[in-house]
Amino acid sequence: MTAIIDLLARGFSLSVELWPPRSSEAQVRLERSLERLVVLNPTFASITYGAAGSTRERTHDLVVAIHESNIMTPMAHLVCAAHRRDELVAILERYKTAGIENVLALRGDPPLDEAECLVEGDLRHAVELVDLAKEIGDFCVAVGAHPEGHPNAPDRESDRRYLAEKLEHADFAITQFFFRVDDYFSLVDDLAERGIRKPVIPGIMPITNVKTVSRMAELSGTQLPDEVLKRIRDVAEDPDAVHRVGVEIATELCAELTAEGIPGLHFYTMNQVSATLEVCERLDLVKRKV
Length: 290
Fold this sequence. Notes:
By secondary structure, the chain is an alpha/beta fold. The protein has a single domain, classed as TIM Barrel (Alpha-Beta Barrel), CATH 3.20.20. The mean pLDDT is 92.
Protein backbone atom coordinates (compact mmCIF):
# COMPACT_ATOMS: atom_id res chain seq x y z
CA MET A 1 0.00 0.00 0.00
CA THR A 2 1.01 3.61 -0.58
CA ALA A 3 -0.28 6.75 1.05
CA ILE A 4 -2.22 8.73 -1.53
CA ILE A 5 -0.46 11.96 -0.55
CA ASP A 6 2.80 10.32 -1.69
CA LEU A 7 1.17 9.29 -4.98
CA LEU A 8 -0.01 12.88 -5.52
CA ALA A 9 3.56 14.10 -5.07
CA ARG A 10 4.59 12.05 -8.12
CA GLY A 11 2.48 14.10 -10.51
CA PHE A 12 -0.94 14.44 -12.10
CA SER A 13 -3.55 12.10 -10.58
CA LEU A 14 -6.65 10.47 -12.03
CA SER A 15 -9.02 9.00 -9.48
CA VAL A 16 -12.60 7.75 -9.25
CA GLU A 17 -15.38 7.35 -6.72
CA LEU A 18 -17.15 3.99 -6.60
CA TRP A 19 -20.18 2.73 -4.70
CA PRO A 20 -20.41 -0.58 -2.82
CA PRO A 21 -22.86 -2.83 -4.73
CA ARG A 22 -26.29 -3.42 -3.17
CA SER A 23 -27.31 -6.41 -5.33
CA SER A 24 -25.85 -9.21 -7.42
CA GLU A 25 -26.62 -7.21 -10.57
CA ALA A 26 -24.85 -4.19 -9.12
CA GLN A 27 -21.88 -6.40 -8.25
CA VAL A 28 -21.57 -7.52 -11.86
CA ARG A 29 -21.82 -3.91 -13.04
CA LEU A 30 -19.09 -2.86 -10.61
CA GLU A 31 -16.78 -5.67 -11.72
CA ARG A 32 -17.20 -4.62 -15.34
CA SER A 33 -16.49 -1.02 -14.39
CA LEU A 34 -13.30 -2.01 -12.56
CA GLU A 35 -12.14 -3.94 -15.62
CA ARG A 36 -12.79 -0.95 -17.89
CA LEU A 37 -11.03 1.48 -15.55
CA VAL A 38 -7.74 -0.39 -15.88
CA VAL A 39 -6.97 1.59 -19.05
CA LEU A 40 -6.84 4.78 -16.93
CA ASN A 41 -4.48 3.26 -14.36
CA PRO A 42 -6.27 5.28 -11.62
CA THR A 43 -4.11 6.69 -8.88
CA PHE A 44 -6.78 5.72 -6.37
CA ALA A 45 -10.45 4.85 -5.94
CA SER A 46 -12.55 6.26 -3.11
CA ILE A 47 -15.29 3.95 -1.84
CA THR A 48 -18.45 5.56 -0.49
CA TYR A 49 -20.06 4.95 2.90
CA GLY A 50 -23.83 5.10 3.16
CA ALA A 51 -25.69 7.54 5.38
CA ALA A 52 -25.32 6.60 9.06
CA GLY A 53 -23.17 3.62 8.09
CA SER A 54 -25.79 1.83 6.02
CA THR A 55 -23.10 0.28 3.80
CA ARG A 56 -20.51 -0.31 6.53
CA GLU A 57 -19.73 -3.94 5.71
CA ARG A 58 -20.09 -3.53 1.95
CA THR A 59 -17.74 -0.54 2.01
CA HIS A 60 -15.18 -2.45 4.05
CA ASP A 61 -15.39 -5.52 1.83
CA LEU A 62 -14.97 -3.53 -1.39
CA VAL A 63 -12.03 -1.53 -0.02
CA VAL A 64 -10.25 -4.69 1.09
CA ALA A 65 -11.06 -6.52 -2.17
CA ILE A 66 -9.54 -3.71 -4.27
CA HIS A 67 -6.53 -3.60 -1.97
CA GLU A 68 -5.97 -7.35 -2.26
CA SER A 69 -6.45 -7.31 -6.04
CA ASN A 70 -3.70 -4.68 -6.34
CA ILE A 71 -5.47 -3.04 -9.29
CA MET A 72 -5.51 0.41 -7.68
CA THR A 73 -5.13 2.05 -4.28
CA PRO A 74 -8.43 2.19 -2.35
CA MET A 75 -9.52 4.95 0.02
CA ALA A 76 -12.32 4.22 2.48
CA HIS A 77 -14.96 6.85 3.15
CA LEU A 78 -15.89 7.13 6.83
CA VAL A 79 -18.42 9.38 8.56
CA CYS A 80 -18.75 10.44 12.18
CA ALA A 81 -22.51 11.18 12.15
CA ALA A 82 -24.62 8.54 13.94
CA HIS A 83 -21.51 6.73 15.25
CA ARG A 84 -20.12 6.31 18.73
CA ARG A 85 -16.42 6.91 19.16
CA ASP A 86 -15.77 3.26 19.96
CA GLU A 87 -17.48 2.23 16.70
CA LEU A 88 -15.19 4.50 14.73
CA VAL A 89 -12.14 3.20 16.58
CA ALA A 90 -13.16 -0.38 15.75
CA ILE A 91 -13.67 0.46 12.05
CA LEU A 92 -10.30 2.20 11.82
CA GLU A 93 -8.52 -0.60 13.69
CA ARG A 94 -10.05 -3.11 11.31
CA TYR A 95 -8.82 -1.16 8.29
CA LYS A 96 -5.39 -0.84 9.89
CA THR A 97 -5.21 -4.60 10.38
CA ALA A 98 -6.20 -5.15 6.73
CA GLY A 99 -3.37 -2.89 5.55
CA ILE A 100 -5.58 0.00 4.45
CA GLU A 101 -3.75 3.33 4.75
CA ASN A 102 -6.12 5.88 3.21
CA VAL A 103 -9.35 7.31 4.61
CA LEU A 104 -11.71 10.10 3.58
CA ALA A 105 -13.06 11.66 6.78
CA LEU A 106 -16.55 13.15 6.48
CA ARG A 107 -19.24 14.39 8.81
CA GLY A 108 -21.83 12.44 6.83
CA ASP A 109 -24.70 13.09 4.48
CA PRO A 110 -28.32 13.13 5.66
CA PRO A 111 -30.46 10.07 4.84
CA LEU A 112 -32.15 10.15 1.44
CA ASP A 113 -35.50 9.76 3.21
CA GLU A 114 -36.46 13.36 3.87
CA ALA A 115 -38.51 12.25 6.89
CA GLU A 116 -35.29 11.21 8.65
CA CYS A 117 -32.67 13.54 10.06
CA LEU A 118 -28.91 13.31 10.41
CA VAL A 119 -28.21 11.87 13.85
CA GLU A 120 -25.28 13.36 15.73
CA GLY A 121 -22.48 11.05 16.85
CA ASP A 122 -19.88 11.32 19.58
CA LEU A 123 -17.71 13.27 17.13
CA ARG A 124 -19.51 16.33 15.84
CA HIS A 125 -17.17 17.44 13.06
CA ALA A 126 -15.02 15.85 10.37
CA VAL A 127 -11.83 17.38 11.78
CA GLU A 128 -12.34 15.30 14.92
CA LEU A 129 -12.49 12.17 12.76
CA VAL A 130 -9.28 13.23 11.03
CA ASP A 131 -7.57 13.46 14.41
CA LEU A 132 -8.97 10.11 15.53
CA ALA A 133 -7.68 8.37 12.39
CA LYS A 134 -4.24 9.89 12.89
CA GLU A 135 -4.34 8.73 16.52
CA ILE A 136 -5.28 5.15 15.59
CA GLY A 137 -2.70 4.60 12.85
CA ASP A 138 -0.48 6.07 10.19
CA PHE A 139 -3.42 6.90 7.96
CA CYS A 140 -3.32 9.31 5.05
CA VAL A 141 -6.55 11.26 5.60
CA ALA A 142 -8.46 13.32 3.06
CA VAL A 143 -11.39 15.66 3.67
CA GLY A 144 -14.21 17.03 1.54
CA ALA A 145 -14.38 20.59 0.18
CA HIS A 146 -17.24 22.56 -1.34
CA PRO A 147 -16.16 25.15 -3.96
CA GLU A 148 -19.51 26.90 -3.63
CA GLY A 149 -19.61 26.55 0.15
CA HIS A 150 -21.14 23.78 2.25
CA PRO A 151 -24.97 23.92 2.11
CA ASN A 152 -25.15 24.02 5.92
CA ALA A 153 -22.53 26.73 6.38
CA PRO A 154 -23.86 30.15 7.43
CA ASP A 155 -21.70 31.83 4.77
CA ARG A 156 -18.78 31.12 2.44
CA GLU A 157 -16.25 32.87 4.67
CA SER A 158 -16.94 30.61 7.65
CA ASP A 159 -16.96 27.54 5.39
CA ARG A 160 -13.52 28.40 4.00
CA ARG A 161 -12.21 29.06 7.50
CA TYR A 162 -13.41 25.65 8.66
CA LEU A 163 -11.97 23.94 5.58
CA ALA A 164 -8.58 25.53 6.25
CA GLU A 165 -8.75 24.19 9.80
CA LYS A 166 -9.54 20.70 8.51
CA LEU A 167 -6.64 20.83 6.08
CA GLU A 168 -4.25 21.85 8.84
CA HIS A 169 -4.96 18.38 10.26
CA ALA A 170 -5.59 16.38 7.06
CA ASP A 171 -3.33 15.55 4.10
CA PHE A 172 -5.39 16.68 1.12
CA ALA A 173 -8.94 17.48 -0.01
CA ILE A 174 -11.35 16.39 -2.74
CA THR A 175 -14.05 18.81 -3.82
CA GLN A 176 -17.72 18.22 -4.34
CA PHE A 177 -18.58 18.33 -8.04
CA PHE A 178 -19.01 21.77 -9.61
CA PHE A 179 -19.45 23.36 -13.03
CA ARG A 180 -17.65 26.71 -12.83
CA VAL A 181 -13.86 26.80 -12.95
CA ASP A 182 -13.77 30.08 -11.02
CA ASP A 183 -15.41 28.45 -8.00
CA TYR A 184 -12.58 25.94 -7.74
CA PHE A 185 -9.73 28.42 -8.16
CA SER A 186 -11.38 30.86 -5.76
CA LEU A 187 -11.39 28.07 -3.16
CA VAL A 188 -7.72 27.24 -3.75
CA ASP A 189 -6.73 30.93 -3.63
CA ASP A 190 -8.65 31.48 -0.38
CA LEU A 191 -6.89 28.52 1.20
CA ALA A 192 -3.49 29.79 0.03
CA GLU A 193 -4.20 33.16 1.63
CA ARG A 194 -4.77 31.25 4.86
CA GLY A 195 -1.43 29.48 4.48
CA ILE A 196 -2.89 26.18 3.23
CA ARG A 197 -1.25 24.80 0.09
CA LYS A 198 -2.06 21.12 0.41
CA PRO A 199 -3.50 19.42 -2.70
CA VAL A 200 -7.17 20.09 -3.45
CA ILE A 201 -8.39 17.72 -6.16
CA PRO A 202 -11.36 18.96 -8.20
CA GLY A 203 -14.33 16.59 -8.30
CA ILE A 204 -16.03 16.11 -11.67
CA MET A 205 -19.43 14.56 -12.39
CA PRO A 206 -20.23 14.08 -16.07
CA ILE A 207 -23.99 14.53 -16.48
CA THR A 208 -25.64 11.38 -17.81
CA ASN A 209 -29.10 11.74 -16.25
CA VAL A 210 -30.91 15.04 -15.71
CA LYS A 211 -32.95 13.88 -12.71
CA THR A 212 -29.96 12.31 -10.94
CA VAL A 213 -27.63 15.28 -11.29
CA SER A 214 -30.39 17.70 -10.24
CA ARG A 215 -31.05 15.69 -7.08
CA MET A 216 -27.37 15.35 -6.21
CA ALA A 217 -26.78 19.05 -6.85
CA GLU A 218 -29.64 19.87 -4.48
CA LEU A 219 -28.20 17.66 -1.74
CA SER A 220 -24.65 18.97 -2.11
CA GLY A 221 -25.45 22.65 -2.53
CA THR A 222 -23.99 22.69 -6.05
CA GLN A 223 -25.52 25.13 -8.51
CA LEU A 224 -26.33 24.10 -12.05
CA PRO A 225 -25.41 27.22 -14.06
CA ASP A 226 -28.00 28.50 -16.52
CA GLU A 227 -25.80 27.69 -19.51
CA VAL A 228 -25.42 24.08 -18.32
CA LEU A 229 -29.13 23.74 -17.64
CA LYS A 230 -30.02 25.06 -21.09
CA ARG A 231 -27.70 22.66 -22.89
CA ILE A 232 -29.09 19.70 -20.95
CA ARG A 233 -32.75 20.71 -21.12
CA ASP A 234 -32.52 21.18 -24.87
CA VAL A 235 -31.88 17.42 -25.21
CA ALA A 236 -33.61 16.18 -22.05
CA GLU A 237 -35.97 13.85 -23.93
CA ASP A 238 -33.09 12.00 -25.61
CA PRO A 239 -30.97 9.96 -23.13
CA ASP A 240 -28.17 9.44 -25.66
CA ALA A 241 -28.01 13.15 -26.38
CA VAL A 242 -27.96 13.93 -22.63
CA HIS A 243 -24.98 11.61 -22.26
CA ARG A 244 -23.21 13.21 -25.24
CA VAL A 245 -23.80 16.77 -24.01
CA GLY A 246 -22.86 15.80 -20.44
CA VAL A 247 -19.52 14.45 -21.68
CA GLU A 248 -18.97 17.63 -23.69
CA ILE A 249 -19.62 19.84 -20.64
CA ALA A 250 -17.32 17.78 -18.43
CA THR A 251 -14.59 17.74 -21.07
CA GLU A 252 -14.71 21.52 -21.42
CA LEU A 253 -14.54 21.94 -17.64
CA CYS A 254 -11.60 19.55 -17.27
CA ALA A 255 -9.74 21.18 -20.16
CA GLU A 256 -9.98 24.58 -18.44
CA LEU A 257 -8.84 23.12 -15.13
CA THR A 258 -5.87 21.20 -16.51
CA ALA A 259 -4.74 24.22 -18.53
CA GLU A 260 -4.26 26.12 -15.27
CA GLY A 261 -2.39 23.36 -13.44
CA ILE A 262 -4.16 21.17 -10.91
CA PRO A 263 -3.07 18.13 -8.85
CA GLY A 264 -5.46 15.81 -10.65
CA LEU A 265 -9.08 15.01 -11.46
CA HIS A 266 -11.50 12.95 -9.35
CA PHE A 267 -14.52 11.54 -11.18
CA TYR A 268 -17.85 10.75 -9.51
CA THR A 269 -18.81 7.69 -11.57
CA MET A 270 -21.82 6.21 -9.74
CA ASN A 271 -20.33 2.91 -11.00
CA GLN A 272 -21.13 3.96 -14.59
CA VAL A 273 -17.70 4.63 -16.05
CA SER A 274 -18.46 5.17 -19.76
CA ALA A 275 -18.73 8.95 -19.46
CA THR A 276 -15.55 9.18 -17.37
CA LEU A 277 -13.64 7.13 -19.93
CA GLU A 278 -14.95 9.27 -22.79
CA VAL A 279 -13.90 12.50 -21.05
CA CYS A 280 -10.42 11.14 -20.36
CA GLU A 281 -10.04 9.93 -23.93
CA ARG A 282 -11.02 13.33 -25.31
CA LEU A 283 -8.44 14.98 -23.05
CA ASP A 284 -5.77 12.44 -24.02
CA LEU A 285 -5.48 11.49 -20.35
CA VAL A 286 -5.58 7.79 -21.12
CA LYS A 287 -2.28 8.06 -22.98
CA ARG A 288 -0.86 10.23 -20.22
CA LYS A 289 -1.45 7.53 -17.61
CA VAL A 290 -0.45 4.45 -19.66
